[in-house]
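yo, glycogen phosphorylase is done. seq:
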Amino acid sequence: MRAIRRFTVRTVLPPELASLGELVRNLRWSWHPETLDLFAEVDPEVWERVGHDPVALLGAVDPARLRELAADRRFLRRVADAADDLHEYTTAPGWYQTVPDAPRAIAYFSPEYGIAAALPQYSGGLGILAGDHLKAASDLGVPILAVGLLYRHGYFTQSLSPEGWQLEHYPSLDPGGLPLTLLREEDGTPVRIAIGLPEGRTLHAQIWIAQVGRVPLLLLDSDVAENDTAARDVTDRLYGGGTDHRLMQELLLGVGGVRAIRAYCRVTGHPEPEVFHTNEGHAGFLGLERIRELTESRLSFDEALEAVRAGTVFTTHTPVPAGIDRFPAEMIARQFGGDNAWPTVPVDRILALGAEKEPGKFNMAAMGMRLAQRVNGVSELHGEVSREMFQDLWPGFDASDVPIGSITNGVHAPTWVGREIMELAGRELPSLVERAQGWEGVNKISDADVWAIRGRLRARLVEAARERLRRSWLARGASRAELGWIDDALDPDVLTIGFARRVPSYKRLTLMLKDPDRLRQLLLDPDKPVQIVIAGKAHPADEGGKKLIQQIVKFADAEDVRHRIVFLPDYDMALGQLMVQGADVWMNNPLRPLEACGTSGMKAALNGGLNLSIRDGWWDEWYDGTNGWAIPTADGVGDPDRRDELEAGALYDLVEHEVADRFYDRAADGLPLRWLEMVRHTLTSLGPKVLAGRMLRDYVVDLYTPAATSGRALLKDGYEPARGFAAWKLRLAQAWPGVRVEHVETSNLGDTPEVGASLEVRATIALGELRPEDVRVQAAYGPVGLHDELVRPAYTTLALESDGDDGRAVFAGTVPLDRTGSFGYSVRVVPDHPLMDTPAELGLVTVPEEPAGMTNGTLR
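structure:
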C-alpha cells in the first residue's frame, strides 16, 4: 500500500545540542570541512549511510547516541566552538563593507541553485554558478538576498537501462527533510504570497529559507492547500511540463519572487534591495512587478520603467537562440490582460517589452534586457557572441556598440577543491586561503607533495567510480557474480581524463568516438595508457542527447575497454566534486563558440588538473599556450561531419603525442617533472582569475554599485529625476527623425598621411527640435574593411563649436592617426544624458546618408 502523504519527522535535540541544529540549518557546512568533521563524529556509520547529509544524519541517529553526546563535554566544546565560528563568519565585516557607495542589499534571482547535493535544486551549469555566486557573496560579505523555486521533485535522478538508454526518476522531496525553515509571520502562521491568474484563479505560495552562510535564499513553494491541483504542481519539478507550466513557474519566480522579498524584509527587518540581478531570462517578470508597484503608488509607466531599469542587472548565459524562453504573445496577453489585467500596466506595453523579430512571440531575454540598464555575458567571447545575437534590440548600432559587457564566471574554491589541497595551502600558503593572494607561492611546494596529493585524489575518484559503476550495472540487471572485473576497472596510476557535461548536441559528448579504433589504441596503449571517466545528463525531452549517451555507454560496455572508459550515471554535485578533483586532464570539446563559459575546467585547474579544451568560453581568454592544451578548431568548415572529423583527429593527436607523453615522462625518482611544471603554471596563471571571489568583486564594482548609484539618482525628490528622464526620452524619440548629419569636412590631412599626425574634423548637424546638449556627436575612426566598413572603430567626442538659430550646430574635434594601414573615419550622432549608461541605450543613432568626408587611405 502506498502512503497518501509523505513527510519527515525531525529529531528533537537535547537542549545541550541546540547549537548543532543551528549548524545543520546553515548550508555553510557544505564548504566547511571542520563542521563536516563534527557531524561525522555524531555517528560515523550513520554519517556514511546517509551520504554526508547532516539533516538526514539527525533524522537517523539513535536518540540514545544524542543523549550520550549531550553529556560529552569534549563534544559540547567542539559544538560551541563551531557555533561561535559560524556566528563570527556570518557577522564579521568582509571585503564588501569597505566598498564605497555599495548597495545596501542586492536581490539575486535564478530558477535553480546548486548549493549542495543534499539540496537537489539544480540541473547544470546555471544552477551551479548561482550556488557559487551565493557562497562567494557570503564569504565577501555581499548582502545578497536570493530568490528561487522549491521543486518538490528536483530535476531528476538518472539511471541506465540494460541497453544503455537514459532513464529518469523523480523522487519526492519533503522540505522537512531538507536544510530549510519556513518563513512565518509573528503569530506563527506561514507567510503566503499570491499571484492573480486568468479566469479568477489565484496562485499561492509559501516561502522556505535556505541559509547559505550569511545569504538567505528564499525558495517559493506552490504545494499549499489554498491552490487547486494545477497550481500546486507549478513547483513540481525543474524544467518540466509544457509551455503553460513554464510560464507559471516564471511568473512565480519573477512576480512572486519580488513579493516574497517584500514579505521577507517586512517580517525580518532585512534592508530592501537597491539592485535586482536577473540571472537569465527566467525571472524577467520581476521587472514588471516592480513597475506595477511604482505605477500604483506615484509614477506613470514610462517613469517607473526608468526607475526600474536603473537598478537592474541582467546576465545572459546562453549563446544560442534555442536556449531562450519564448512564449506565444497571446499567452502573455491572456495572463496580463482581460479580467486579470493590472490597471496601471497596459498589456500592450508588456508585449512590446518582449517583442522580437518573429511576430507573435514573446522573448524573455529581450524583455530582461529592455528592463535592465546593465547587461552582461559570462565570458569575453560570450559577450561578443551576445552582442551579435541581440543586435536587433539596438537597431542602427554595430555589434561592437551593443551595450552588453561581460564578467567571466568563477568557481567557489572551498566547494570544489580537494580537502588535501586546501589543507596544504592553509599550511604553506595561508595568504592564499585567507585573502586569495600569493599564488606565486605555489612554486614553493615540493614536487613530491604535489604529486602525492594528485595521486590520492585520483585514487579516490577510481574507488568511487568503481562503486558507482557496480551500482549502475546491478541496476541494469547484471548479477554480482559477473561483475568481478569492476574490482580492476580503472587504475589509480593511469592518466585519467574527465569529461562531465550536460548533453546537448553542441557539447559533443561523442566527439571522442569519431574514430573508435583510434580511441581504443589510446585507451589500451601498453606504455602510455589513458582512462576516461564520463558523466552527464540529457534533458528528459532530448531524444538526441539520450542517443549520444547510449552510444558512449555501448562503447564503454565492450569487454576490451570497459576497464579504461566508464560512464557514471546520475551526474550531481557529489560526483562532480570527485571528478574535478581526481582527473589529471579535464576535456571539453564544444562546438565553438556555443559554450557561454563552462566552469568545470576551472574547478579542475584549481585541483592541479590540466585543461584540454576547444578555445571556447573562459578557455578562449585565459589559455596562454602553456597552462594546458587547446584543441584546434575547424571554424571555416561548413560540413559538420567533416568538422567533427578534423577536430577529433586533433584531439587524438594531442592526447597521444603531448598529453600522454608528458604525463609518463618520469625522472629517476618517478616524478613527471615537466607535467608538474605545467600544473604549477596552471595554478599560478589561472588561480587568481577563476575564483568566484574575483567574479563577485567584478559584479560589485562594475555592475552592482553603478546600478545602485543610478537607482538612487532617479528616486531623489520623490522620483522627480525619473519623471524628467522619462519625459526627455519621449521627447528624444519623437524628435529624432529630424536629426541629420548635413556636412562633414576635414583639414590637416596632407597629401601623404603619416602615423602620429591628426585629422581635424568639423560636422554640421541639423538638430530639428533638439538642443545641442541633447546629443553627443562622435567621430568614429579606425581600420576599414573590404566594403568600406569601419572595423571595431574607436570614438572621439566632438565639441560644440557653434549653435545657430536655424536648428543647426557645428561640432569639431581631432582624430588621431594612430595606426598604419587602411584607415577611415565617419561621424555619428547619439542621444546624450547624464542618466544614460551607454550611447546605445535608446537605440537611436544618426550617421551620414553618404559617407561624407570619408577618407579611405593608407597611413605610413
